Amino acid sequence: MRKVVLILSIVLFLAITCTIALAGVVPGALLHLDASDNPKHPDGWKNLGTAGGELPAGDKTPELERGTIKIPDLGFTLQDTKFYTCKESLQTFGGPAGTNPELRLESWTFEALCKRNGDVLFKEHWMFGLSLTKWGGGFAGFLGAGRQKGGELFTTRPVRHKSHGINLELGKWTWIAFMSDKSGSVFYQDGKEVDRDGPYVFPKALPVKFICIFCGHYGDLDKPEEGRARSFNGSFAVVRIYDKVLSANEVRGNISSTAAVDPASKLTTAWGTLKAAAHRNQAE
């Protein structure tokens, strides 16, 4: 019996090792948010990245849902996985300075597995925001065309569902990635480069203190309509922010690695199989 247990233990170890080996996600993300691994729910979204901490829930916590995520053109499928959905204005993650992880992002990459579920919930909607202050000095998501001008954030054109070559089709999951350094910015959708632009950079000496998911910027506490109310009518399953620019191969590798490996389900299956085998050997 000891021999059987030893063999089964080795098999389990190899199963764990293989699962980890297959998970070829680029390491070192400062912010890594995964709806399927969030012990802070419903109070916040725990950061699995190197900066630690979490993004607190906003005025209303985005709803935790589960289902199958597919991107057919990529052969990307996550079965029975979790994701967060904003269904009304002010359902956001991220709070005032001092409550979010502080990020230093002179060069950076934002990537997310997301989908748009409908039209605006308020005046306009924004997917995410990064800034040094409440009102600007940063970048806010793809649906509002955020720009920097004199250190302040402003919008240059009406909100659209297609910006910088990224097209958020209604009800369709997609993998977006945006990266920037002093040389310029590059936009990807589903592993393909779709646009280039000028740089969106932050001074390395100053930390990004305001991080918002499902909205563009935090806004004043007494004026939520100026920030958090512009909530993204959509869903996020995974969000990562790096303090470096990823290559095209790394962007595609992060997509395939996320789709290929679901450690929790694989290890649960492996352990269940091993226990069943042990019971059979005991009976024999």
Query: How many helical stretches?
Result: 3
User: Which structural category do the helix and sheet elements fall into?
Assistant: alpha+beta
Reading the helices and strands in chain order gives HEEEEEEEEEEEEEEEEEHH
> Which architecture of the largest domain would the CATH scheme give at its second level?
Sandwich
Percentage of residues in strands: 25-35%
Question: What is the domain total for the residues?
Answer: 2
Question: Unreliable stretches, pLDDT < 50, 5 or more residues?
Answer: 4-23, 143-158, 261-284
The level 1 CATH classification of the largest domain is Mainly Beta
**How many β-strands, per DSSP?**
17
Taking the sheet with the most strands, its summary is: 8 strands, antiparallel
Globally, the shape reads: globular
Helix fraction by DSSP (H/I, runs of at least 4): 10-25%
What is the radius of gyration?
A: 20 Å
Span from first to last CA? 10 Å
